[in-house]
Amino acid sequence: MADQSLITDEVRSHIGRTTDLRPVVVTTVAVARAVGVYGGEVPQEGIAPGFVLMNLAPEGQSLHLPNLMPASLLISNEFALERPLQVGEELQARSRIADISERLGGQFGHALYVRTDVEFFDRQGARVGRSASTMMHYDPAGGRQREGER
Question: pTM value?
Fold first, then answer.
């Protein structure tokens, strides 16, 4: 178990950092990939399922934290829509590190949790949706061994 917090002033300074707006397109490929991951059927009418937002990442500038742990695991994905998404529609997206928290002990040992939010806007600047994900960063060597594992 770690003796001190990994959330230093440098790490804390990343909370609230936001990228510039970048273009993303709701492509048929993005829809098919999202359906492949989350289930359902590829829509025929040109309306994209809302969960496609979780697979749309703006190119270019990104939000990178210092590499503090050797392993990571996606632990949650969320999305919210203001209106239906159209296949082929171009949106503008902006990412933000919303929160960083820490947990000591447990199955994964010392872990950092990083929540990233992405907002999506149409050409008129109206917000059409958002997605959020939480990644757990941890060191497998620091975790608690379960009974029967050696």
Answer: 0.82
